[in-house]
Design a protein that fits this description.
This protein is of the alpha/beta class. The chain contains 14 helices and ten strands. The chain starts with 15 loop residues before the first helix and ends with a strand. The structure holds S-adenosylmethionine (SAM).
């Protein structure tokens, strides 16, 4: 007898259904984003976070939403995984909706958290309203995001994003073991020092230099002082596009830095790293690779279409890093793929 619970198989590669699935995947991307925007604008996380669960009828009444459209909206939110739906398979008004585990992960049990994810949606909106064809024809973009951050406010915004997402980045570096034998670490583009302090706290024998632009260097000094790490974490102010790195390190780390720069800049940074590393030194890259992170890459690089100071090929696959490292006189000696928790993989390379 036919098992009705059996999952349909994925379409064979190159079949008409495979091609159509790609097309619908692209089209559904737009639908999903609009659903997410309305989910936040209607404060669905906050309302369901405080109420626990609601019927479609109560939800539409409380939010003054059209009952028919509101029902379909809630059902779609459940279909894309932002809500859980109980009952209502036939469209009944008393279908019950609650936040899904994924929505609670992103916006908290109470639905009031998620600064970083909310900000990502705001940044998406800023570019989504622009006429893309006109932008592609060269329409000037006076308020475009500039890179690197041009002033203290912009640096503070960036480093806040980095700080609130630092835990995962620290975890992948620690998990790789790449710093376990190190004693002097140069953390290039080391944010506001959060990661440098966390690494120094984990490895009592490690001294860290955070290399950063003046505004972020100032923020790093503040963090280091607040965390009481000043005995082993220091700041070196510099612009890696212009300045040579200080020398005499046995580890040089790029954590979430290289996906902001073109392959040519990355190669130049690797060459500087080679000169900064003493004998037996090791270059450590903690980065989101294109491999396995396609949606992540597309959502970031779409925005970069609207920001001219961001270059080409910023997110790169592993094989491009291998080529760039090779060109700069390094060979990869260890690779730790991203764990289930975060997007970052760790590449370790030594001078050839
Ligand atoms: C995406 S953040 C990553 C911060 C930190 N490494 C982390 O993982 O949280 C990129 C960092 O590179 C720094 N940066 C950008 N351009 C730079 C430049 N030309 N010279 C030095 N640092 C730069 C930024 O100030 C910022 O701290």
């Amino acid at each position: 007898m036919l098992d009705l619970l059996e999952q349909p198989e994925a379409p064979p590669a190159g079949s008409p259904r495979d091609h159509d699935a790609l097309f619908y995947d692209i089209l559904a991307g737009g639908a999903k984003t609009r659903l997410l925007e309305a989910f936040l604008d209607l404060q669905v996380p906050e309302i369901l976070g405080s109420r626990g669960e609601m019927t479609a009828r109560d939800f539409c009444r409380q939010l003054a939403v059209h009952p028919h459209r509101g029902w379909k909206f809630l059902h779609l939110l459940a279909t894309v995984g932002l809500l859980e739906q109980a009952a209502g398979d036939h469209g009944e008004d008393d279908a019950v909706f609650r936040l899904s585990p994924a929505a609670k992960y992103h916006f908290g049990e109470d639905g009031r958290q998620g600064y970083y994810y909310r900000d990502l949606v705001n940044f998406w909106r800023n570019v989504a309203v622009l006429p893309i064809v006109e932008v592609l024809r060269g329409m000037p973009l006076p308020n475009a995001v500039r890179w690197p951050p041009p002033g203290l406010n912009e640096a503070e915004h960036l480093e806040t994003w980095m700080r609130v997402t630092a835990e995962g980045a620290v975890a992948t570096v620690l998990n790789s073991g790449a710093l376990a034998e190190g004693s002097r670490l140069l953390d290039v583009g080391g944010g506001d020092g959060t990661i440098g302090c966390a690494l120094a706290q984990h490895y009592p024998g490690l001294k860290v230099t955070v290399f950063n632009l003046p505004a972020s260097a100032y923020l790093a000094r503040r963090t280091i002082s607040e965390k009481g790490c000043g005995d082993r974490v220091q700041v070196h102010e510099g612009d890696f596009l212009q300045d040579e790195f200080p020398a005499g390190y046995d580890r040089v780390l790029f954590s979430r830095v290289l996906c902001d720069w073109t392959p040519a800049v990355c190669r130049m940074l690797f060459e500087k790293s080679r000169r900064a590393l003493g004998p037996g030194g090791r270059l450590v890259i903690n980065e989101a690779l294109v491999d396995g992170n396609l949606d992540y890459t597309v959502s970031w690089e779409f925005r970069y279409l609207f920001y001219d100071t961001f270059g080409r090929c910023l997110f790169k696959p592993l094989h491009v890093y291998r080529e760039l490292l090779n060109d700069a006189g390094f060979e990869i000696v260890n690779y730790t793929p991203m764990p289930p928790a975060v997007f970052y993989s760790v590449i370790e390379a030594v001078p050839k």
